[in-house]
Amino acid sequence: MFLVRLSDKLTRTLMVLGAGWAFVLCFLILFDIIMRAINMPISGTKEIVANSVVMIVFLQIGFAIRSGAMLRADFIVTALPKSFQKILLFIALALGAVLFFFLMKAGIKLGVRSFVNGEFDGEGALRVPVWPTRWMVVFGAGLAGINYLILSIVELFDLRIDPVEL
Questions:
Q1: 147 Cβ contact list (under 8 Å, min separation 6)
Q2: Of 63, 65, 135, whose CA–CA distance to 97 is shortest?
Q3: CA distances from 135 to 68, 87, 96, 112, 125 (A)
Q4: Which end of the chain is more exposed for a tag (fewer CB within 10 A), N or C?
């Protein structure tokens, strides 16, 4: 299925980008701590980190969903009959898709407004643009919704697809 392969490649690529950016942020934070110790903090570190954490989450959420790594409390569900478990899993996956598609739809207006108005975070020497973060929420939520939709279709029709791997 073309959509599944495309989604897998995209989620894997975005997961690696998110992990790489998190790695870079570690050094930025470390450097800021060192510079604060000598009373020369790096301007804008707080704003960069705050926006980056949101971006990293939405870069990696599609992979977490598609690989089956999303948090699931199924201790009650496992005690139910298999047919009922299957129905509940389908409902949960479909609701996940609906949730993320609503999040995507809600974020589009904010993303456009942020870009058009030139919204920035921070004051003074370094001002961080907010629109990339807002659009990453839109894109990541859309991809998460697609992955939940794929998984719900797989569950509904009892199809076989391999989980995405790194």
A1: 7, 11, 62, 65, 66
A2: 65
A3: 25, 34, 20, 8, 24
A4: C
- Rg of the chain taking only CA atoms, in angstroms: 19
| Average pLDDT per block of 10 residues along the chain, 166 residues long | 87 96 97 95 91 96 90 81 91 96 97 95 83 97 96 89 68
**pTM reported for the whole predicted model:** 0.89
Provide the 8-state DSSP code for 157: T
The rounded distance, in Å, linking the Cα atoms of 152 and 70 is 14
